[in-house]
Amino acid sequence: MAKNKEINTEEVTPDGSRAINKFRASDVLIMIVLTLLCLTCVLPFIYLAAKSISSNNAVLAKQVYLIPKDITFDAYVSLFKDGSMVRAMGYSVIVTAIFTALGMIACTCAAYPLSKKRLKGKKVFTFLLMVPMYFTAGLIPSYLLYKDMNLLDNMWVLIWPLIYSPYNMLIMKTYLQSTIPDSLEESAFLDGASNLQILWHIVLPLSKPIIATLSLFYAVGRWNAYADNQYYIRSDSLKMVQYKLYQMVASATEAQTTTLSEAAAVTSTPEVLQAASIMFVTIPIIIIYPFLQKYFVKGAMVGAVKG
Amino acid sequence: MAKSKTSEPAVKVKTTWKNAFKRDWQLYLLLLVPLALVFLFSYAAYPGLRMVFMNYKPAKGYAGSEWVGLDIFRKIFKDADFLRALRNSLVFNFLDLIVGTPIPIFLALLLNELRYPKFKKVSQTVLYLPHFLSWAIIGSVAYQLFRPSSGLINILITNMGGESVPFITEKWHWAVTYLLVGVWQTMGWGTIMYLAGITSISGELYEAAMIDGAGRWKRMWHITLPGIKPTIITLLIINLGRVMNSNYERLAVFGNSQVRDFQYQLAIYIYEKGLGNLQFSMATAVGLFQSVIGVILVLLADKFAKMLGEEGLL
Fold this sequence. Notes:
The structure holds two protein chains of two kinds. By secondary structure, chain A is mainly α. Chain A has 16 helices and no strands. The longest helix of chain A has 37 residues, at 16-52. By secondary structure, chain B is mostly helical.
C-alpha cells in the first residue's frame, strides 16, 4: 500500500522527483512530531528514575538530569524500612482485588438479565440501574448515608458504593447482545438448561475477553482513584497508596509555595525520597501496562457502541 | 419450562408477570444484586437532598434542623466563593474542551499517515500511558518538573541564562500548565475513537483522490477529516454535556495557596464548604445545582445529537 502511494504520486505529479522528496519530508516531519510527543510521556519518568537513585547532594546541586549521579539505592531502602508506603501498597492490592472480584459479580448479575430481549420489565430495571450514572446525590448526602451505615473510616467504604458501575454494565450488555448468538442459548434451553446453567456453562466461557477487559477497568479505576480516601477515611492505615502519594505532594507543594524557600521543601521530604516514592507507585502500573493496554483499547471500542 | 418455549416466538403477545417470573425467576434473582447495590448506596442518599431546604446542623440531624425554604439557594447565589467557583469551573472546562478536542484529532491524523507499523505501535503504546496513571502520580511528576527554581524545566531555563518561570505558583502560568497537563493526559487515549472512525472510511475515496493528484495533506483535509466528522461531533457533544463536572483529584493535586483564584472550582468548593466547614446545606445545594445542570446538559446533548442525525447518547 505504502509503495503504491508513492508510485502513484510520482506518476501523476508533474514534478516527479520533488514529489518523492516532499513525501519523505512529510514522513520525517510526522515522525518528528510523534517522537517529541512520546518523549513528553517518557522523559519525565526517566528523569525521576535517575533522580531516585542519585545521591541527595547531587540532586540538591542540580546535577541530575536524565543520568543518575553517585548511584545509590538509599532512598528505596529507607522507603522499605519506613514501611508505610509498602504497607499502603499491599493494602491497595487487597482492596483492588476484592473490589474487582465483587465488581465483576455485580456487573454480570446486571448485564446478563438485561441483555435478554424477552425479559419482562427490562426497561424499568435498565432505567433504575442507569440513573445513578447521570444523577448522584453528591458528596454530603453520601457522606451522611455512609455514616449511618457505619461505613466511615472503614475499608468497605472504598468498595461497596462503587462496585456496581452502570458504564461497565452497558459495555458488558452490549458485548453479550452482539457476540452471543441467540440460537446457542435457545438450543440449550430446549435441552432443559436453566438460565443460570446457560450463564455459567455457555455465556461466561464465551465472554472471557470482555471479562478480562472489564476486570481491568475495575482494577485500574479503583487503583487510581483516591478522592474517596480523603472524604471518608480517617485512619492512616486504611488509606491507599495513591492517597499517600497525593499527601506527600500536597505537603511539599504547600511547604514550597507558602514559604517560597527551598530549604523548607527539602526538609519536609528529601528530594530523592520523593522521587523514589513516585517511582515506587508508578512502577507497578508501568510493568503491567503493556498487557493492560491491549484490553483497554478493546473495551473502549465496545463501549463506543451504544447499549 | 415447556410453556416458555411456546411463548417465546410470540413477541407481540404480552407475557404475564406470572409467566415471565416462572420462566426467568433466576434472572430476576440475579438482578437483585445490582438493584440492592444501587438502592443501598445511590438511591438511599437521595432523601438526604432535602437538606437544601433546611439549615442543616450536623449536631441536630435532619429531624432537629429547621426548614428554611429557598434561603440556602438565595444564599449561595450571593456567595462570592460560589460565584467564583462556578466561573472557574465553566471557564476551565470550556478551555479544556477547546484545547483538548483538536489535539487528539490531529494526533489521530498523524498516526494514520504513519507508514511504519512498528513505529506506529510503539508510539501509540507510549502515548496511551498517561491515561493509566492516577492524578496523584501525574500531579507529583508535574510538581517535580514545573515547580519554581528546583523543578527540572526551571533548572534548564536558568542554566541557559533565563529567568525562572512560576509555572505553578502564579495563576496565569498555572492556568496554562493545568490545561496543558490535562491535554497531555488525554491526547493519546483520545485518538482511539478517531482512529476507529478513520478505518471505516472507504479506501476507494483515497485511491480516487490520488489519481486526481491530491497530495497527502489534501487527502487528509478533504477525505479523512470529513470522514471522521460524525465522530468529532458526537464526542464534542458528549463533552459539552460534561462541562459542569469538575475533577476533584486533578484540582486538588494542582492546588496551592498562590493559585486559589483559579484553582477554586466547584469540586473544591463542595469539599471545603461541606466536609471542611460543615456547611452541609450549602455544599449539598451547590452539588445539586451542579448535578441538575449536568443532567439537563446531557439531555440537551442527546437531543442535539439526534437532531444532527447521529445516534443518540442515551
